[in-house]
Design a protein that fits this description.
31% helix
């Protein structure tokens, strides 16, 4: 059936291919002479069409971010290998944004396993490059297209579940000078 439809489409298109032919117009009086053509060098440049930016799959907006990865106990070396490769790719990037991301991206491993035996890893991002992409598979595809499929497979297969939990964090209470002791600010007690 597909062959018949394809043959019919090709036959109807004729020798000019599949380009549409404008309908025939009734004869009209000749149009006035067009002004002289502008040489190509003087022709106004037509701006190239802009392609809308693809929104980041895992953007971070706060000054600090955390991404939680539950990793299968027997796949921790695979996960660490992928994250080490990502670190190296970000550090060597020609893009300043990616180098900044790499400089502020640390990966921690929880010392004790989770209840199901998996291992918790936390990507700690500080400072965050606001609204930059932090999705590991997308970053790998951008930085190492020839390795991306193999690295993504390792990354995906290491996870207990296919999604990660990400959090944008804002400091609410920061370390600072200790508040003065109550005794130091209270007036001395009267003597009896």
């Amino acid at each position: 059936m597909r062959t018949i439809l394809l043959t019919l489409c090709i036959a109807l298109a004729g020798p000019t291919g599949l380009a549409a032919q404008p309908p025939a117009q009734p004869s009209a009086p000749p149009a006035p002479a067009a002004p002289a053509a502008v040489p190509a060098a003087e022709a106004p440049a037509t701006p190239a069409p802009t392609v809308p930016a693809v929104p980041a799959a895992l953007p971070m907006a706060g000054p600090t971010g955390m991404v939680f990865h539950a990793i299968k106990a027997d796949k921790t070396a695979d996960f660490e290998s992928v994250m080490t490769r990502l670190r190296d790719l970000l550090a060597a990037s020609a893009t300043e944004t990616r180098r900044q991301q790499g400089a502020g991206w640390r990966v921690f491993r929880q010392a004790t396993p989770l209840g199901d035996g998996s291992v918790l890893y936390i990507s700690f991002l500080e400072p965050v490059v606001a609204n930059a992409e932090y999705d590991v598979p997308r970053l790998l595809a951008e930085a190492a297209p020839t390795e991306a499929a193999q690295l993504y497979e390792q990354f995906r297969d290491a996870h207990v579940q296919p999604t990660v939990q990400a959090s944008n964090l804002t400091i609410v209470i920061a370390p600072g000078a200790a508040a003065p002791a109550a005794a130091a600010t209270a007036p001395p007690a009267p003597k009896p």
